[in-house]
Fold:
Amino acid sequence: MGFRIKAAGALALALIIGAGAAWAQGDVISQRKAAMKAIGDGNRAPAAMLRGEAPFNLSTVQAQLKVIEASATSALKLFPDNSKTGGDTAALPKIWETKADFDGKMRKFADDAKSAQVKITDEASFKQEFPALLKTCGGCHTDYRARRS
Ligand code: HEC
Structure:
């Protein structure tokens, strides 16, 4: 009885480990997509403020800068060599051909979001600083992210 339970447990564990290995690569891809999606979703509110379609709200802007800093920092670890394909990734092979440049851009993105938290203290400084951060998105996507048709 005890043995059968142990054997069943071992089998279940083996299945979990096996599935985990096959799944790990897709997992890191879904994690980086989720990190980017958090940045993209969070940007809607500040973007509306920039266009004058929503009232300026400093705490919303600061919260988004923290999301960007945290997501970009975690994204640094989410482009390992074994994650070039699969998981419906839009990441281009160029990321791994010029990895130092890519990592540098991602690190600068996190750093810029961090320093913007200090620089942005009111609506005027928001309007001055935030657009530069938005330019960073396109600067990296142009080189490193496939365009979806
Ligand atoms: C240093 C590079 C870099 C920067 C900077 C960057 N991105 Fe990305 N982004 C990527 C890469 C690479 C992907 C593709 C990831 C994948 O599909 O595996 C991506 C994917 C995305 C996606 C799609 C996520 C999904 O659901 O698949 C969104 C949305 C996005 N980025 C928004 C942004 C926004 C908004 C900014 C700027 C505020 C930004 N990104 C800045 C590299 C970057």
User: Anything to note?
Assistant: Residues 29, 32-33, 36-37, 39-40, 43, 89-91, 105-106, 109, 133-134, 136-137, 140-141, 144-145 surround heme C (CB under 6 Å). The mean pLDDT is 89.
